[in-house]
Amino acid sequence: MTTMFKEEVECCVCGEKSSHTGIGSTNSFGSPDLDTRPPEMQRSTIYHWIQRCPSCGYCSSDLSKCSNNTKEIIKSVEYQNIVKNNVTPEVASSFLALSYEKEQSNQYSDSAWMAIHASWICDDENNSEVSTRCRKQAISLIEKANSQAQKIADQKGASEAIAIDLMRRAGMFQEALKLVALTQAKEIEEIIIQVIKYEEKLIELKDVASHTISEALGKE
Ligand SMILES: [Zn+2]
Question: Which residues are in the CB-under-5-Å shell of ion ligand 1?
Fold first, then answer.
């Protein structure tokens, strides 16, 4: 069961108070997706992982907190364009806005994860065009993270496995296969080897749907 509560949060950018839903506790049954998206009930709590200030548009997991350059970034035309975009589902825009702020602060790993979260919201809305765009953005942010020695996952090969899944889901089959070959040549853990083998099979089938880690391990 998921328990939720209402809380009033004061925006650290403009001082406006707004009401948001917090998550007290949640649980999950089953396997995460190949891109680590959790199963239910945790899966659908994603809509409360981010808050948006109704006054200035600041998006954060906690509006009461900001870093030194937050105010400047929030005021930028680029940021406001992301927040006000009405083609992208609203919560996805909020994640993309946070992704932009993290990118501007050179936090490429966090930035990539926020773009991945945005893609999950678009999946829920069956908006494959925008979810593909979010995934492509996440892939380039992972590349930036790698170039700065920032890891998006701790386990050896996990970062590559996530990137391969993003590429497959975005229909970038050639790029995905290239990364499969590169990763298989590295020393990685057995579980990741199995996940990557399964990705290879899905890519051959040109399957762009979401699949779980259990499926990859032959447990379903
Ligand atoms: Zn505000």
Answer: 11, 13-14, 16, 53, 55-56, 58
